[in-house]
Design a protein that fits this description.
Blueprint (H helix, E strand, L loop, with lengths): L3 E3 L3 E6 L5 H9 L17 E7 L3 E7 L7 H15 L4 E6 L6 H12 L4 E5 L9 H11 L3 E3 L8 H11 L6 E3 L11 E5 L13 H12 L3 E5 L1 H10 L6 E4 L4 H7 L5 E4 H9 L2 H7 L11 E6 L6 H18 L4 E6 L13 E4 L7 H13 L4 E3 H8 L3 H17 L3
Helix pairs in contact: 11-13, 13-14
This protein binds iron/sulfur cluster.
Iron/sulfur cluster binds next to loops.
Amino acid sequence: MAKGRESKPHIGIFGRRNNGKSSLINALAQQDIAIVSGIPGTTTDPVRKSMEIFGIGPAIIVDTAGMDDSGELGQKRVDRSLAALKTVDLAILVVTDNLFEDEEKKIIEAFEKQEVPFIIIHNKSDQVPLDIRLKERLNKDYGVDVLEFCAIEPSNLEDVIDSLKRAMPETAWVADSLLGGIVKKDDVVVLVTPIDNEAPEGRLILPQVQAIRDIIDNDAVALVLKETELKGIINILRPRPKLVITDSQMFRKVDALVPREVQLTGFSIMLARHKGDFDVYLKGTPMIDELKDGDRVLMLESCTHQVACDDIGRYKIPMWIRDYTRRKVEFDVVAGLNELPRPITDYSLIIQCGACMITRKQLAGRIRPAIDAGVPVTNYGMAIAWLHGIYQRAIEPFMVLKRDNVTNGK
Ligand code: SF4
């Protein structure tokens, strides 16, 4: 079984304005990290805070604006709070004054739609205690913990933390290994990282760092070099390296240098298998061949990082696709979690970046509308490998793993 590594659970706090959501965060952190005020609407946009919760450990808390906000601006805040739901592993619905009406039901419907487990906290119970009939009704209707709480003087914080731990899905704690099952103890993995004008000065990019960490976690050996050193090393390394992982832009050159008996893939494909919907990408990638004149392709970048991905998404992949298909294809690029400029159904193909900066849950929420609408989805590395004619080779390490998992009934 692939080794795992620790991951920080993302916990979202939802509810009406002035329900004490920020006070609850301070109570969980046992320090004042969120701005608390009696004025409704103090939290305007979802705010992510990295904190240590006693009994849980490091976690990311997502503090959201009140879900009962009104007006044009208020609705935007509500939409952003709902969008934040796509990024959390567990939600807390905060209620007060025994108020459980359509507003709360709608929030729970949103939790259920996104398949986010949740608990309910009746806050400010020092002022108005939780009505036992409401508690029983909610227990019966939703089958979740409903706890009485006073964030200002939290006497039962341990109960809340126990409830959070019970409701937290296992996947929130452990991230699967990037290369587990592919590399094993003492294997050598060569990482080809171009150091050119596009590379960030003085550091490696995140997928490269994540790969190194994962190789070490799997008790294997990481050898990091530029493409200019690859030929010399490959010729002298004995036994041969188990795997070469390259920046996707170097695919063609690296493919020519790496002997057939050595496995080859790209950092972006490694991420596609790890946190993307690999099966969806496998179906989506060949759809590049179906693109027609006037079709529109959406390039999705999961951060506003202005380094190499920027160039790949805006210039290189569009150029390669036009050259390969000989079609007049249009491209839209959307960075971060910004809204799309058009309905998803206007696109013939979605090409998602490696998504190194976001969680699997966030990525799933981002590509789900396309999957639901039947729009093909692929990823940067898989698309580049397809366009450069080395797709089968580049996905093969993960296909072997898929076949092994089927054989072993996983
Ligand atoms: S999240 Fe996407 S765009 Fe941002 S650095 Fe990672 S791969 Fe590039």
